[in-house]
Amino acid sequence: MAATATASSAGPRYAPPDPTLPKPWKGLVDGKTGYLYFWNPVTNVTQYERPTSIDSVQKFSAVPISSSVQVQQSSEGRRGYSPDKENDRYGRGSNAVSKLEPVSRSNQNARGGPVHSLNTPNGTASSLIGGSSTRGHGSAAAGSNMSSDAYRRQHEITVTGDAVPAPFTSFEATGLPSEILREVHNAGFSAPTPIQAQSWPIALQSRDIVAIAKTGSGKTLGYLIPGFVHLKRCRNEPQMGPTVLVLSPTRELATQIQDEALKFGKSSRISCTCLYGGAPKGPQLREIERGVDIVVATPGRLNDILEMRKISLHQVSYLVLDEADRMLDMGFEPQIRKIVKEVPTRRQTLMYTATWPREVRKIAADLLVNPVQVNIGNIDELVANKSITQYVEVLSPMEKHRRLEQILRSQEPGSKIIIFCSTKKMCDQLARNLSRQFGAAAIHGDKSQADRDYVLSQFRTGRSPVLVATDVAARGLDIKDIRVVINYDFPTGVEDYVHRIGRTGRAGYANGFRTGFGDEEEGMIPADEDGIIPPNDH
């Protein structure tokens, strides 16, 4: 049932006058929660973010985003405010106020949490980050003249859940803090990807999400940016443990998530550390001791550190499972469940997956509360990225290497290319054969972390433009300018095929292609009932 904005009996009141606020902004205190927020009586816009100037606020907040948002309550039901100038970006200072606690899951309504409106003193509900809970599916998408239904049809978005907010079709429509928007614009992004456009307004309402999207869809920022906003709301002390926890299947993906968190959270001074196996624990433990806002971890290493009692997850209120299907494929379900037991039940949980098999549905049902499901592309099917041109060639084993060299020579000099092999032995052998002429290097599970980091660095910078890899790299790499993916050996299943070819056609880089060599012997190309693999070219 859609929530409507109503004036609370404990209405807002004016905060003490603050001469540093730009005119005409005024400080308000929510009478029910005790939150301080800011109101512009000219535009009737409200926001948590302290305004710096009229121009900047109008630029990023002129589009009304929400008439009703979820507000996290402290255990006392209200929260004090300290204007201490010594506070850091989260308002933490020597006179620390009581911590903001996430909504109790036992008290959540059908939308995943209690809903309160932010009211202005005249009783009018105003706007704030979070998306509208009262918009119908056919209403206008935020920041666009296109209706929500039309935008979703255009981008093959399907949503399931109560009162799903309209997608954000522009960055300005999000009402995100100006420092985050600056980082996004500086990165060269012109508009949110479909998964970001639809998942952001849901996540900003503190609701649980299951997002099913192809690889290369921009999902990392889909959960990181709402996580940054969550951090600003919570104002936890990082020395007491992280507030945001991201679980990922591989160390490659984990380090790339950390890179994105540091890049886009830089101006907000957000700290992030990465915990993964194959590297010494000492430096990772020292970073935890110093205190971090975000921990990105593989399940195995995080479990090891939990058993050492060197990390506390009692402050985690924003939990992300990235590539959940891959983590289950790798046998991490026991570790995931053990980790989640250490996380408070009062939390927001977001699950991102490329596939939706029974095992993933089961763990989602166990860990999430009333989630909104967002599908990008075909529902309940494994989907190859449509921006990738695919070719299949059936060759004898003797012809494969000759044809591979022909394809490599046909590419522009310096083009980044990934070649997938089914075995580590073949991976090393092929890299040796190609290294002199094409600058190839190998990566697989038997390589040390130092070797893997070095090879990936050489590949990213173009010093080794050809990367020969086993499937260990298929679900972790996020290098946006990969031109070609070659399956020297076909994977054993269609799922791994989709994730292999997803290394090209990444978000913002749509013109990749993929070719695959199938052996003439019957059965070397995996069964493909859904038509993901194209007919072979003879």
From TrEMBL:
Residues 403-538 form the Helicase C-terminal domain. It is an enzyme of class 3 (hydrolase). It comes from the Eukaryota. Residues 117-148 have a biased composition (Polar residues). Its EC number is 3.6.4.13. Residues 19-53 form the WW domain. Residues 200-374 form the Helicase ATP-binding domain. It comes from Theobroma cacao. Keywords: ATP-binding, Helicase, Hydrolase, Nucleotide-binding, RNA-binding. Residues 76-91 have a biased composition (Basic and acidic residues). InterPro entries: DEAD/DEAH_box_helicase_dom, Helicase_ATP-bd, Helicase_C-like, P-loop_NTPase, RNA-helicase_DEAD-box_CS, RNA_helicase_DEAD_Q_motif, WW_dom, WW_dom_sf. One of its GO terms (molecular function) is ATP binding. Residues 66-75 have a biased composition (Low complexity). This is RNA helicase.
